[in-house]
Amino acid sequence: MNSQRHNKSAIGLSFRLAWRNIWRQKRRTWLTALAMIFSNVLLVFMISVQFGSYDMMINNTLSMFSGQVQVQRQGYQNDQKIRQSVENIRGLAVSIRDRLPLAKVAARASAFVLISSEDRSFGSQIVGVEPGHEPGVSTIPGLLSEGRYLDDPAAAEIVIGSVMARNLKVAVGDELKFLGSGRDGSFAAGVVNVVGVFDSGSLDVDRSLAEVPLGYFQDAFAMGDSGHVIVLSVPDLNSVATVVETLREAVASQERLVVLDWEELMPGLKQAIQADMTSAWFMYAVLIVLVAFSVLNTQLMSVLERTREFGVIMALGIKSRRLALLVLLETLLMASVGLIIGVLLGSFLSAYFAHTGFAYPGMAELGEKFNMPPVIYPALTPLSVMLGPLVVFLFSLVAAIYPALKLYGLRPVEAMRAV
């Protein structure tokens, strides 16, 4: 018990000495602490904005067409042949809606065809959709620049992209012909009326995508009651893992069906986010290194100024190891001040813009063109708040190692003679 009391007393004394020592040079301490505070505020805000922009990027990319989760036949993702189909796709979609009432669910079928107007022909992907459920999983129905969206599940009508309409020289009310291959190997052909033209902002989508009602698609391509994918849109990306697990249990009894989340559906999107994060951290690293050198300079000057004092203390029997730990403890306390104040100010700043939104110059025009929000809302999460400041905190401690190590080579007699 006496030993424990002695240790606690020694630790308390060390903290008091360290706290007193860092305020011996108040101006220098505050300058270093302010450098930490500024970097922490900037890191909290910038990382929160980054995470918010990633959420916006993911949501807008996935909501355009692919959804966050898909159920499809094994192998269809890499080899989209018309025979890679899912039986009774509408019935399966209904059962999924009953199991996941918060998710938006739509069945689709797709094929690649030659689509023609009176003057021109182009290759295209034609997708059969459920008109009543497709708006819940895709933003395309809300991006019409002309006409209307599909409304009859079996009508011979089509919605095409603006680039395709321009290339084919057609408008709403014109007829298009398509020619492809049915599920049974037969020719699939049809004549459809253009009822709408959409402008998604993506040239590839507007050039190569057309949508028809699922019932009409199944008749034209000899699909029976089959389709190719069931698309799900969930309210929160954080719930995707739970939805995937539930779906895998739901389709476990059906052979060769797989459940894919957005990372598997669009691996390029995840890679783009990782690349952007990596490039951003190069910039953050410069800021963190500058703060670390500031800490190194402050603590090195502090050690050199107290050389005679350390020499006297060592002559009284205090080991250099304890003095080195004292220097590290001083750095820890100073870094803690920068961490706490920086995190609080950065959190307040990020919380304010998370409520009001943050916009770059020209972002409103860009958002209107691509059907995206005109502002970014920083994502205030424990990771976005603490990631940057903790890195600054650790680098500050590492920077103090060199000044602390200088005490190990200190000789008491020589130190007491230092000017």
Number of strands: 10
Shape by Cα distribution: elongated
Number of helices: 15
Along the chain, the helix and strand elements come as HHEHEEEEHEEHEHEHEHHHHHHHH
Alpha carbon gap, first and last residue:
44 Å
Structural class per helix/strand content?
alpha+beta
Write up this protein.
There is one protein chain. With 419 residues, the chain is of the alpha+beta class. It folds into 2 domains: 196 residues, no CATH class; 165 residues, no CATH class. It has 15 helices and 10 strands. A 6-stranded mixed β-barrel has the order 2-3-8-5-7-6. The chain is elongated and about 100 Å long.
Give a brief rundown of this model.
With 419 residues, the chain is α+β, with helices and mostly antiparallel strands. 54% of the residues lie in helices and 17% in strands.
Give the helices and strands, then pairings.
Blueprint: H1 2-22, H2 26-66, E1 69-73, H3 89-99, E2 104-116, E3 121-129, E4 144-147, E5 157-161, H4 162-168, E6 175-181, E7 187-198, H5 203-208, E8 209-213, H6 214-220, E9 229-233, H7 240-250, E10 257-261, H8 262-265, H9 267-305, H10 307-315, H11 320-356, H12 363-369, H13 382-399, H14 401-405, H15 412-416
Parallel strand pairs: 3-8, 5-7
Antiparallel strand pairs: 1-9, 1-10, 2-3, 2-6, 2-9, 4-7, 5-8, 6-7
